[in-house]
């Protein structure tokens, strides 16, 4: 009998401590509205704290929130606390201009946690360790440090324009569907995830360093733009399921992706002023889309590259640019048997053509750069009819020729491969036509 009494007592205590609020909507305007939650430990529904005159707000006892909790447009609110909260669906903090403290000391799991426009919020911490989070965004805050994120997986992580944030390390992160790190620390931001092996898409802008030593696969696109680091290294990355873009990184000197073998879409490397040598793609075999490389490039080496599905264009302001890095190239399903990079294409003199081009109208003028162009796109119908009298020998050889117009500071590539014209922009149609006419004459 005694044992039975003890069991009943425990159940009574349990019910007394665990109060469930299910299916409700609470719009909070002052502290009295919070009284509806007095003693509540689990809440399902919507709580909105919008446009209030509250200065400080604490909601104790609640351990679980299922639904959406919104704190928005509270111009006087300086501190907010959920001291007992352990798990939540959606926590949204937006446009709270004087909010300086968000306290969630026991929070372990949340589906969505967003903080936007909190210019006085300087710190965010999860003392017991936030080990489960799907969507995490911090934007336009004064946060300097984020502590306690130990999740092994996130769907999306966005750090955007947090001017005081200088670094974030996520050593426990193994996979992420999306990482967007842009405009933090006034361009002086470091981001690392040493265990990250699988990434959906990544967009990295205004960083001084990134460190992903374990990253093996990117299923979508990967973008590095306007960063200030001098080297980019992804030592284990083997496949990119979208486009790789490396653009406008003024201090970048070296790029190393030694294990990368396949890019499902495009390779774009452009406007990196100090990147003069591209030689970090030792195993890159196939680009299903196009390759666009431009800048002050003196060397572009792709020793294993055999397939470029939609053509390649290498343009350089350096007169020493070479094409020996494309020795194994196929354009589409056609193997390129020869790339001749010399003062004249196929040992022919085109100095008279250079003179003709130099004297051409302004709208046919050429940029002062060097270019190696592979492009399998068919020209438009009117262009195709205008330039059908191509040299038959070139048609048969299935070779690609690069002509340095008798020492001009530009190299153009053109040719014919199984009916596919290999063309630069519109002025290259005219150059190609003039070259072929010159050869025929």
UniProtKB/TrEMBL annotation:
InterPro entries: CWI-Assembly_Regulator, Rcpt_L-dom_sf. Gene3D superfamilies: Receptor L-domain (3.80.20.20). It is found in: Secreted, Cell wall. Keywords: Cell wall, Glycoprotein, Membrane, Secreted, Signal, Transmembrane, Transmembrane helix. One of its GO terms (biological process) is fungal-type cell wall organization. Its main location: secreted. PANTHER family: RECEPTOR PROTEIN-TYROSINE KINASE, SPORULATION-SPECIFIC PROTEIN-RELATED. This is 8335_t:CDS:1.
